[in-house]
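dude i think i finally got it to work??
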Amino acid sequence: MASPYKEGDRLTLYTEGEQTFWGNLQVRIGKLYQPWTLSCVMEVDVLQPTTSPARAILKLYDWRFAAQLRKDKMIDPWTTDYESAYIDFVRSSRAQDFLDKLRNDDDFEEPEEGWDIAENETYLHDLCIDMFKAETTVYTKLQSYQGTQIPRLFALATLSIKPLYLENDVDSAPPDSELFQVNGILLELIPGFTLAQLDEDKAPHTSWQAIVNQAIQTVHILSDHNILNEDIRTSNILITPDAHAQGGYRVIIIDFAQCRFRGEDESDLKWGRAKWSQDEEGAVGAVMKARLKKFGFNLKYEGSMRYLEWAEGEGDEES
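look at this
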């Protein structure tokens, strides 16, 4: 089924809360960043309100067209048949019952034969809500770093995807349901390239060490705020020219949907071991050291070993 997001199309979203602005948000899609992974990302012109930035990034957690998410969960692409099954499911009480069990029943799990189409779609929708909450929580926790090490968050947005015929059919239309909504965020547009693309054509080799050092420092900022990023990749780190930054380039980390936060009762051992196993720092430093070596560049990097004491040893057990 074709995506409803096309270059030149207009979208009306609703925003609320303590943000740069709230109310109706009208945007025109300027560029689609495909292939889509866990969300649908696009560059948009902001038409209303006029006090907003002229151009921004809109990230929609739309499970229907998040291709990588569907592939990871071994669920086929969205079709009109899937849409019909999902609509019928949401209109009935079964969808809410399924969602309540999914969220609140620790013993609730997928049966051996698997969930049906509508249940799978509801499951994916709920995963997208979780990712939206994780990402927005990171932006809240790191608010003082917005505009420097991470993008500015302009607004949280909601897009209604309630089918038109349900909007007009008062008798059969269910009450407004979160299952007919897509959550999104409007972010600062940052021109540049990713750390994964770093080469002589993007930036002189004299700046490479400073760029990687900045990236590692930003990874440490997340750690300092009890955030574990399970999706730290060089393709999720942006580089943009900045005369005032170290080496002439500013480094910004994006995509926090796969982050988790230290639990209130999570022991030092369990948290430290999780951080050691994930090795977010190495996912930047070690990876870039190996990559830049292919260009004949000797990147100076040694892991900080800040979680070494929690490394799993032979015979160890978590507590």
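The mean pLDDT is 90.
im so relieved honestly
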